[in-house]
Amino acid sequence: MPNNIDIEIKKIFFHVFPDLTESNFDWKKKQNDYQDWDSFSQLNLITLIETKFHISISDDELVNIQSAEDALNLVKRSK
């Protein structure tokens, strides 16, 4: 069963990528597999994650977020 962090990360991805649905969401889907994952989307993701979880994401960490799973693992490590 997913925990609250999992649920919130998914909500953020659904918000940033409106074409994403439960049926096509994949934790391992990479940035290159998203048609609309550009630098603006990356900034939105980071800002929403930082705000929601009250964390600060460094530039080094930012460039390593290339999937929902990467974002999830980063938040879990930061908690």
UniProtKB/TrEMBL annotation:
Stored Gene3D superfamilies: ACP-like
InterPro entries (UniProt xref): ACP-like_sf (IPR036736)
Name of the protein in its database record: Carrier domain-containing protein
Gene source species: marine metagenome
Source species taxonomy: unclassified sequences, metagenomes, ecological metagenomes
